[in-house]
Amino acid sequence: MSDMLAIIEDSSADERVVEEIARRHPDRVTVLLQDGTGEPQLADTDTPRGRAQLARLSALQTAIERTGAVVVGLVASREQLRGWRFDRVVGSSGPRAAF
């Protein structure tokens, strides 16, 4: 089993991150959604911005699961990942060693 963390910052990188996930063939993917400053960007789903973000996350999850991986979680900050281990990390700045 391989676990991957996918760091999603801006929507322009979504396709590239999904391609990297597909190339690496992980079994499980956890998605960290943050903006370029590292601040959480989960919005209230009762707002237009929140509904757009929910639609984006749904499309992203579908795209990731088409690679054969299972999305096991969504987090809004690295603090939520304290103590977790990943075999690989991918994101807007490219693939990285696990942390």
Largest sheet: 5 strands, mixed
Shape: globular
Query: Would you tell me the overall average pLDDT?
Result: 84
- What share of residues are in beta strands? 15-25%
User: What strand order characterises the main sheet?
Assistant: 3-2-1-4-5
How many structural domains can be distinguished in the coordinates? 1
Secondary-structure element order, N to C: EHEHEEE
What is the number of helical segments per DSSP (H or I, 4+ residues)?
2
**How large, in whole angstroms, is the Cα Rg?**
13 Å
- Helix amount, in percent? 25-40%
What structural class do the secondary elements suggest?
alpha/beta
Number of strands: 5
Q: Distance between termini?
A: 17 Å
Low-pLDDT stretches are none
Walkthrough of the structure:
This protein has 99 residues and is an alpha/beta fold. The chain has one domain. Helices cover 29% and strands 24% of the residues. The chain contains 2 helices and 5 strands; from the N terminus they run E-H-E-H-E-E-E. The chain has a 5-stranded mixed β-sheet with strand order 3-2-1-4-5, covered by helices on one side. It is globular and about 40 Å long. 19% of the residues are buried.
